[in-house]
Specification:
mainly alpha; Methane Monooxygenase Hydroxylase, Chain G, domain 1; 24 helices
Length: 541
């Protein structure tokens, strides 16, 4: 490759860079200018398929990227703001919307790209209002797009004379599936089908590839643009994954249909006419419009299939009561059995919170803190649901007493969870923020009382389940032992303070409050034990 050929090779890729940067500049300016309108369009999403398609077209025009729109939809799906049936039409709309950008860049005005950019560049610095700057920014971006196209066309005109590239293009012409895959991969890397199609336009304009070969580049570009949403869906919830795969299946379906009938598409393109760049743009437009028409009738059915096939992972499923059945309310025996199982489930969550609470003082584990917050929210939800369920159960005097006992214990469990969430976690946050460390003796004592509280909590849940007076007395005895232990450990801490132990001095308030909070947990989980001892009907909730 001589110097001249090398220069033209660089010109082609420089043109590609200008083209990509120009599109990005247009997109950024439009986002600043139309950000509120984008949010407004999303707020209008409904189950109306024509409206959803219109929203998809407008969003793609505003963001200048179908991949960006589908990624945005995936993000909204993750946040549970939208549902899959609402966005199926939007996905089809984005495919139509992206054809407008390709039609625009197919105009034979590449030679004015640099003058447009230059004039817009100076106007940008003269503009005072932000709105004017954004409008001029759009012109600057399109100036770079057309300048990039001119560079790519110039470079491609000379590259076709180079034997190395002649062999590559000849190979791709004979192996059209490979051309499709390469175009898809390239689109996935640059995150823009318009860039791939713009490059294909430059190549077909220079006769480096034929219009027929260009069709497979267009197929690959449409398939490759789905990668943006797939990447955005990684680690997301089921709705986000459903949105991403809906986009993949729509594009893949279109590619499969057109892959086997390129001659018919070619005939349609030639019948419409226009210069070679316009023909490439028209092929892209026909591909997406016909795909939209083919798959429009199956929007509802497609959403149903995806929702059945792409299910939430266990940790994604919406949390709620597991055993409560409103149909059982008129049968108190069954209703109380269900409520008892739900309370035990709630108790297990509180037990896990108490068990893990000591770990946040040993290391600054952000994920554990989040998990404890999440578990507290679950306890709050179960407390409300169980309480409402029990209040709906019969009005006999005996039943009312049982309702009161169960609701009281549920409230005690919720209070214990709140002590962990609002008390212990706040103390841990303060300790970690100040980079404090407990003395070895103090830490061993804290672990000791924590162990006793866990033991009491387990006995408390068992006592509730069995309504056994012997267990109730055991819970009360453990509570008294913890109260005595808390007093002794407080005295032990003060002795360390008198000795001037620096670690104890620095952590004193946290240490004392931590002992008090564990004592409070023991107290609230012991309340129902006194009721069990007073209850004449042993073993019956």
């Amino acid at each position: 490759m001589n110097l001249s050929n090398h220069s033209y090779f660089l010109a082609t890729f420089a043109g590609l860079a200008f083209f990509m940067y120009g599109l990005e500049f247009v997109s950024a300016s439009l986002k600043k200018l139309m950000g509120d309108q984008v949010r407004g369009l999303l707020a209008k999403l409904s189950n109306s398929k024509p409206l959803a398609i219109a929203v998809g077209i407008l969003l793609t025009m505003l963001l200048q990227s179908s991949g960006a729109v589908t990624s945005l939809l995936v993000g909204l799906g993750k946040a549970r703001v939208i549902t899959l049936p609402q966005v199926m039409g939007v996905i089809i709309g984005t495919a139509i919307g992206t054809t407008l950008t390709v039609q625009l860049i197919s105009f034979n005005i590449a030679q004015i790209g640099l003058p447009v950019f230059s004039l817009s560049f100076f106007a940008y610095f003269l503009a005072k209002k932000e709105t004017h700057k954004n409008l001029i920014g759009i012109c600057m971006g399109f100036g770079l797009v057309f300048f990039g196209l001119e560079l790519m066309s110039t470079g491609a005109n000379h590259m076709k004379e180079i034997e190395f590239f002649q062999e590559i293009f000849a190979y791709l012409s004979k192996n059209q599936f490979t051309a499709l895959l390469l175009a898809a991969v390239f689109t996935g890397v640059v995150h823009s089908s318009a860039v791939t199609i713009g490059l294909a336009m430059a190549l077909v304009s220079s006769n480096s590839i034929s219009m027929y070969d260009c069709l497979f580049w267009i197929y690959g570009a449409n398939l490759g643009t789905t990668s943006t949403a797939l990447v955005a869906a990684v680690g997301g919830n089921a709705i986000g994954r459903q949105v991403a795969w809906a986009n993949v299946l729509f594009k893949l379906g279109g590619v499969i249909v057109f892959y086997f009938i390129p001659d018919y598409l070619m005939m349609a393109v030639e019948w419409i006419g226009g210069d070679i760049s316009r023909q490439a743009a028209n092929a892209h437009t026909l591909f997406n419009f016909i795909s939209a028409l083919l798959f429009y009738p199956f929007i509802g059915k497609g959403a149903e299939v995806l929702q059945k096939k792409i299910l939430p992972r266990p940790q994604e499923r919406e949390f709620g009561p597991k055993f409560l059945d409103r149909n059982s309310i008129m049968t108190p025996v069954i209703a109380f059995s269900e409520a008892s199982r739900e309370v035990s489930r709630m108790g297990d969550i509180v037990l896990s919170m108490i068990h893990d609470s000591i770990q946040v003082f040993d290391s600054e584990d952000i994920e554990l803190v989040r998990s404890l917050h999440d578990r507290d929210n679950k306890v709050d939800l179960l407390q409300r649901e169980i309480k409402n369920f029990l209040i709906s159960v019969g009005g006999q005097n005996e039943l009312t007493q049982r309702v009161v006992r169960m609701v009281s214990y549920v409230s005690d469990l919720e209070n214990a969870a709140d002590i962990v969430d609002r008390g212990l976690l706040e103390l841990a946050r303060k300790k970690n923020a100040l980079k404090l460390t407990f003395s070895k003796e103090g830490w061993d004592e804290l672990k000791g009382i924590h162990k006793e509280v866990i033991d009491l909590a387990k006995s408390s849940v068992s006592c509730f389940q069995m309504q056994d007076k012997g267990l109730a007395q055991m819970v009360i005895d453990k509570k008294r032992r913890i109260s005595k232990m808390e007093s002794e450990l407080r005295t032990s801490h003060f002795e360390r303070l008198n000795k001037g132990m620096q670690q104890s001095l620095r952590t004193s308030s946290i240490h004392i409050d931590l002992l008090a909070d564990y004592k409070r947990i023991a107290s609230v989980l012991c309340n129902h034990a006194y009721e069990v001892l007073k209850n004449d009907s042993d073993g019956k909730l």
